[in-house]
Design brief:
Blueprint (H helix, E strand, L loop, with lengths): L1 H18 L9 H14 L5 H11 L3 H18 L12
Length: 91
Amino acid sequence: MLIFLGCYRRRLEERARTMSAETATGPTEDQVEILEYNFNKVDKHPDSTTLCLIAAEAGLSEEETQKWFKQRLAKWRRSEGLPSECRSVTD
């Protein structure tokens, strides 16, 4: 399993490098659709493996995908009337 993820990660990094110029202005509509689906149906807090798979599916780097999820989670929290950042219960 670890060998598979290592190979998959290398392919993802190569794909992200080739697509980075295209995504410099942000994700395309198709990429946003993939990200939104995963945010709403799969997990709002993806672990590193899931994040890697989502990034590969969307054709984005893991960093871009993680940043998108962080911003989308803050937007979702605000829409739910929660603070945009997680804080302790006493705040």
